[in-house]
Amino acid sequence: MISLAGRDILHSWGKFVFTGVGLGLLIGVTFTMAGVYRGMVDDGKVLLDNSGADMWVVQRNTLGPYAESSSINDDIYRMILAIPGVDRVANVTYLTMQVQRGNADVRAMVVGIASADPSAPGRPPFLVAGRQITRSHYEAVADVAAGFALGDTIIVRRSRYSVVGLTRRTVSSGGDPMVFIPLKDAQEAQFLKDNDAIVRQRRRTGENPEFNRPGVPGLLDAVIASQNSNPYVNAVLVRIKPGYDHERIANDIARWKRLTVYTRSEMEEILIGKLIATSSKQISMFLVILAIVSAAIVAFIIYTLTMDKIREIAVLKLIGTRNRTIASMILQQAIVLGLIGFVVGKITATFAAPLFPKFVLLVTADTVTGLVAVIVICALASVVAIRMALKVDPAEAIGG
Questions:
Q1: pTM (2 decimals)?
Q2: Can you give the residue ranges of every domain in the chain?
């Protein structure tokens, strides 16, 4: 029986190989799509790991700082630091934008971090070259995926930053590389106005009689200075001392400071369950479509091969070959075709993953699941050809 299927495959080996390669490319796309989803989930977890935080304090009733915008005063961290069990706190800002690299633009998440405390959360967890930010202005640490090298100049808004350190796999939930700059610079960049807007704002303020009251010198200058400053951050990252209850501390901060606090598990649920939920549904739909197309290709080629050997099947029936043997031969051919496609697809996905614009994570569990799915799809796709073969009349061997 096995020899019968093998001999038939060798007889039509060209059609099998070319069909298997085409099917393999389709399976490779399927593996890549699954890897893209795995990569998106991993990007979200890496973002949380790299923050070094146990909880995130954000504006009340928001899903900040990653899924929604959040704005809180930059002096709140002092009150949070006074809560028993809190080890470290750090203000942080996040701004996804185009940063300038020479004559080109790079999509990046600009992160404003406090440069005073080297152990504060929010800083890059490790460097592959250079050093951390030590000055309060005009230094930057960039992810290598952004394409910067040590000593390069990054232009953010109207300011220039010298790259003093390089890190790796510090990305946003969307896979954009991160660029770390001092907090004060990031606060200014987040709400920076162009020169014309600043001039117009000063003119409007100067014409306001409320700010030109006699007997109050310097009031106008103070108002203008406050309008050009940004005393806000997107979140406060909190690190908890060992042995303390995270949930209790989070509830205390939320109750007494009138803020929203997310623990690690809650923030992971926001990133994976809400931020990339739509993308995961789209990828799932593509996977279903690719599975249906793969099944159709296998069914068509097996049906064609079976039609080409109708007389041979009739001869087998005439000499007493059981239907189970004929069905098994067709099923084996379908599975062999699927295995050829699986091998080609796995090789294609492995070599194509590093070239993909987004991070593609290929895991062993998906490979095993894919192998089982390919076998099942090929088995189901062979049903049409098997039913047609079993209806062949043995008399056709004589009449042909």
A1: 0.79
A2: 2-43+278-399
